[in-house]
Automatic annotation (TrEMBL):
GO terms for cellular component: cytosol. Pfam families: Cytidylate_kin. This is Cytidylate kinase. InterPro entries: Cytidylate_kin, Cytidylate_kinase_dom, P-loop_NTPase. Its EC number is 2.7.4.25. Residues 6-214 form the Cytidylate kinase domain. The gene is cmk. One of its GO terms (biological process) is nucleobase-containing small molecule interconversion.
């Protein structure tokens, strides 16, 4: 069975960075499931679809023309890597992800990423729904205020205007929607290792998770060292 490590948690906790660093360290494949929902939200918006209409969104999700190439995300051949990382794209992703039909349409697509030598997958329901058989499940969390501050700094560094109180409000709204949706709500798997990154740097988080990786996947650490 392909070894799988899942990283779940709300937005802004550092899941994506952690996933990439672990995948590089282990030499495994990486799956950013959130990018799928962001691309879907972007595609739906460009087609003028109602993000709250599952009957319109589900067929689009089933035939989503998305590709991942060398760290870039392509939609119908167009590089949308930057376009899907805006605050608007994140909110759109949360809305489309609330529909059961959409999640079902993307489920098999995500599971096909599990192939040798291993997979590191991050998202909201990687350990609870997509890969419940994963041998190691991490749930990464942090306070809404800290997550908003991190996002605020990222936006400022890119020269983008941002309002910190609004970012906090947006994060709380998205958390509430993700945690309360009827299908695959955001929550830790029963056997997940909980890591709170509120007072931790990404290097400290990586070290903490690598402790668990050494425990569960010692053979992978040996190959990746």
């Amino acid at each position: 069975m392909t070894p799988i490590l899942t990283i779940d948690g709300p937005s802004g906790t550092g899941k994506g960075t952690l996933m990439q660093r672990l995948a590089e360290r282990l030499g495994w494949h990486a799956l950013d499931s959130g990018a799928l929902y962001r691309v879907l939200g972007l595609a739906a918006g460009r087609q003028g679809l109602d993000l709250d209409d599952p009957e319109a969104l589900t067929p689009l999700a089933a035939a989503l023309p998305v590709e991942f190439q060398a760290g870039r995300v392509l939609l119908s051949g167009e590089d949308v890597s930057d376009a899907i990382r805006t605050e608007e794209a994140g909110m759109a992703a949360s809305r489309v992800a609330a529909h059961p039909g959409v999640r079902a349409a993307l489920l098999d697509w995500q599971r096909r990423f599990a192939r040798a030598p291993g997979l590191v997958a991050d998202g909201r329901d990687m350990g609870t729904v997509v890969f419940p058989q994963a041998r190691l499940k991490i749930f990464l969390d942090a306070s809404p205020e800290i997550r908003a501050e991190r996002r605020y700094k990222q936006l400022k560094e890119k020269g983008v205007d941002a309002n910190l109180p609004q970012l906090v409000a947006d994060i709380r709204e998205r958390d509430a929607r993700d945690r309360s949706r009827p299908v695959a709500p955001l929550c830790p798997a029963e056997d997940a290792v909980l890591v709170d990154s509120t007072q931790m740097s990404i290097a400290e988080v990586l070290d903490r998770v690598l402790e668990e990786v050494r425990r569960v996947f010692p053979e992978a650490i040996a190959r990746g060292s």
